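As a warm-up, study this chain.
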Amino acid sequence: MLESSAAAPETTTPRRATWFECFGDLVFAAAVGQITHRVGAHPDAGSVAAAAGLFVPLWWAWVLYAVHANRADRDTAAHRLLTSFGLTGIVGMAVFAGAVGQSRGVDAGFVLAYLVARTGVALLYAWDSRRNPALRAVFRSFTLGSAVSAVGWLGGLACDAGPLRYGAWTLAMLMELALPLVVTRRLAGVEQETDHLRERFGLFTIVILGESVLGFTNGLAAVHTAGWAAATAAAAFALTVGLWWSYFNGSGVRPGSHTELARTGKLLHLYTFGHLPLLLGLALAGASMGIAVTGGSAHSTATAADCVVGGVIVYLVSVALTRAAFTGIRESVVVIRLLTAVLVAGLLPIATHIPVAGLLSVLAGLVIGSVVVETPAQRRRLAMFG
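Now compare it with the structure written out below.
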């Protein structure tokens, strides 16, 4: 049943993602697809760097909306209207993302769209701070930080395309990412719905994995299910399943530790920022799925191989270290993830010499194998703290 736009009564029932939040994820999924398409369309180092750079502000915009909804969104008509305004900025980012760097007009469109998305978050905090005084500090800090970073984004447009423009944008992005760390003490009284927050990150992870599925299915359709392409697609699907299983098999921390994410602090920051390399690794690996399938029985190009293998390594290390923040670096699952990353790294020197179907099959075997090996340790830990 669809949720009413009227304010929901207070309840002790754990919050779940609303239908409107899921709709917003679809908008972000379109933008993610346009960014990862850059790698598939032009598989070279420049496209990979551009995709990675564009992914960061898109991911950060998603975090801003997810965190706001976690803190204050009661799924009212006002929230939906203000969020919809902000989502028009995400639509704009999707429209311009594929051609950023080609002209000043396109770059301006992307930047202005991003600033509209941030304005939507500021308006949401302004609206909610009227009834929740604890959010006034968030509104002031966010608005001031947004104004300062906007100078960097707009100032970059005044520079010629190249190092100066991208340097200004990088500085603006770093200021935005640093803001939550700087104002942590001021926001100490703002609480989070921890289960809802973790559910939101899980749903966005599925959005990123969905791009992998789209990549290898599009590749398979393009080559009309040729024999080698079918084998490669099957291996790509197995790898995608393994990555999904790996994330959700190890996404839980010990029972009761969820409360440690309730307040702004070190663990919340580690959990949030730990997802940036984690999701970027998944996105880059998924971006090369279509290339892998259309390549048939051929060996991977260096860029495609580095994206797939390197993306899996970055994912494994990130998910392991994020978990380690809660369980300790010596915990069995963390050690297994890190050892698996080392084994995957051993494929880098030979990745271009292995048929792509074989490379993806080995990666899938290592990822799924690590999940199987770590499962008893997961169960023991749950039993220990249950």
